[in-house]
Design brief:
- With 182 residues, the chain is mainly β.
- It has a single domain (21-180), classed as Thaumatin (Sandwich).
- Helix content is 9%, strand content 34%.
- It is built from 1 helix and 11 strands.
- It has one helix at 2-17; strands at residues 20-27, 34-39, 51-52, 60-66, 72-77, 109-115, 119-125, 135-138, 144-147, 168-171, 175-180.
- The strands form 2 sheets. A 6-stranded antiparallel beta sheet has the order 3-2-5-6-7-10, with no helix packed on it.
- Bound molecules: 2-acetamido-2-deoxy-beta-D-glucopyranose (NAG).
- Disulfide bonds join 80-87, 92-98.
- Keywords: Disulfide bond, Signal.
- Pfam families: Thaumatin.
Length: 182
């Protein structure tokens, strides 16, 4: 009796302290996109956060991430083989689910990280890469940024590491829409 109510209390407090936000990938492109999520705080892959899938045009998929994670990135891959590997753009090591957090994907990334004032700081970035798939990133509170090949100002996405005007921040939780071909 004591043990079971103690376990219930521990469970409740764990649920109370561990919240999540969702990355919802929406494929509005005319082509198939293979979305991926990885985590690499300070450039070191953390394989406890990883996700991969395949989206035909019009499909979407959502994945939950711990609110306190840092170094999280989501991106899309194109031209992959039937295993979700050997992609033409956004490629990673590991196939459908990347094992290297996409640190050499050279793609347009959506980035998320827990920071000061108990907020999630988020942006689009193609530092060292290209806009492989145009994207809009919508925060949970009505803010959004958009980067298309022909129109991607530095207050919408990092082109180089100093483009801090691209950063937005929002309260914990909620859903971020990473829209391919907005
Ligand atoms: C990896 O991510 C998990 C989940 O957010 C976290 O609990 C863990 O501390 C992280 N590990 C490192 C080394 O950052």
């Amino acid at each position: 009796m004591y043990t079971s109510s103690f376990s219930a209390l521990v469970l409740i407090s764990l649920i109370g302290s561990s919240t999540a936000f969702n990355i919802n990938f929406i494929n509005k492109c005319t082509y198939t996109v293979w979305p991926a999520i990885g985590d690499a705080p300070n450039g070191q892959p953390n394989e406890s956060i990883r996700f991969g899938d395949r989206l035909n045009p019009g499909q979407s998929v959502s994945h939950g991430i711990d609110d306190h994670a840092v170094g999280v990135r989501g991106w899309g891959r194109t031209g992959c083989d039937s295993n979700g590997a050997n992609c033409k753009t956004g490629a990673c090591n590991g196939g459908l689910v990347c094992t290297d957090a996409g640190i050499t994907s050279h793609a347009l990334l959506s980035e998320y990280g827990y920071g000061s004032n108990n907020r999630i700081y988020w942006d689009l970035s193609f530092v060292g890469g290209t806009v492989n798939i145009p994207a809009e990133l919508q925060g949970p509170d009505g803010q959004s940024v958009t980067c298309k090949n022909t129109n991607c100002p530095t207050n919408q996405a990092f082109h180089t590491s100093g483009d801090y005007g691209a950063i937005r921040n929002s309260a914990l939780g909620g859903t971020y829409n990473h829209i391919f071909c907005p």
